[in-house]
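Chain X:
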Amino acid sequence: MKLTSNISGLGIMTAIAASLCCITPVLAALAGISGLASTFTWLEPARPYFIGATVLVLGFAWYQKLGIERKNDVHCDCEMDAKPSFWQTKKFLGSVTLVAALLLAFPNYAPIFFPKTENAAVVSSQDYIQKVEFTIKGMTCTGCEHHVKSEVRKLDGIIEVAVSYEKGNAVVKFDKSKTSVKAITATINSTGYKVVKHRIITNSS
């Protein structure tokens, strides 16, 4: 039965590997070390393979566990076997499966870990309002989006922020008398992602 616990451990490791690129931005934001957020973005292309490996490994563990229990039931001659340790039980394997499922689903609920900050910028004049699109390299999931959005919203004069990892951009509306493109760029870069270019969005854009 040691094989089952070893396989369960492998399942947890593949689930962690699949979610590491999404978990890191949250941990970095909570710890106040934003620059580490993009540390594991290189794992993102392999995420589907890690997910598949997790499903296969845990599926095999359940197959082994249930198959061995059925075999033991068939060959039982009323002799009392020693009570298996917790690590050999279905309860343990079920707990491992639940943890793995939560890890794999992490990108879907990552936003709850970021502070809900609403901008209440008082615009001194409409002439100062500027809207800029920043093209960002390195974002791989919704966790990355919310990390960038959370940091940019901390700046004075921010009116609106929309971030998309799929488009690889952030569109920021702000009062340029209170902040600047340079300050916003520096803030985004401080998260570990990289602004590669920006463009001013005019009313006709």
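Chain Y:
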Amino acid sequence: MFFLKKLITFFILPPGVFVVLLITIFFLRKRYKLISAISITSALFIYLISIEPVKDFLLSPLEERYPKKREVQGDVIVVLGGGSYNTGVLTEDSLKRLLAGFVLQKKLDIPIILSGGSAITNLPESEVMKNVLIELGVDKSKIFTDVYSRDTLGNAYFTKKICNQKGFKKIILITSAYHMPRSVLTFKEAGLDVIPYPTDFKMDKKYTIYSYFPKMNVLQDSTKAIREYIGLFGYYIHFMLFK
């Protein structure tokens, strides 16, 4: 089921959706008007989601839902993994989340839960994050890991188990700002008292002429936003059906 969900996601989001479109064009190659329409629409879509104003338009409802907080109090910090490589190196999103968790842990001196299993790689990302924190000087007795979760639903479920075992009541939840609405929804549905602490903001909102040039990193951020909307819709349906 998890593999099927990932497979569908890969082919309805960029760049997979463009592979599907190109294959469709190949099979429709004798229908010139339809091919022209698909080609022009695809080119326009690629251009739009590759420029900064459209990227920010997509991200704005997600990232502005929970503004960044300076002062927070809780029983435990929870950092959600954002991916890692088989080489044991964290992705950019994971590293930013972990850095925010490290700074907050040093400030508050409370335990920290690292949540993230091996969704695609063979190495649980929570263990990679734990190794980084230990190297930075965090007391390993204050670090707890969830090595089983493979998505946000799993993050909430296994974090809840750790909180129940350790007696943590109020969690400070750290994840990328674009991912925070879905995370808060999921963790609250799991019965956790959540204080959102977003990081890794990707909006700019200061544009120049170059902001209208298509860029690969902008395309990547737009894709993350689109994926979140699909994920939010799917989770709303899930919670409606299984309440």
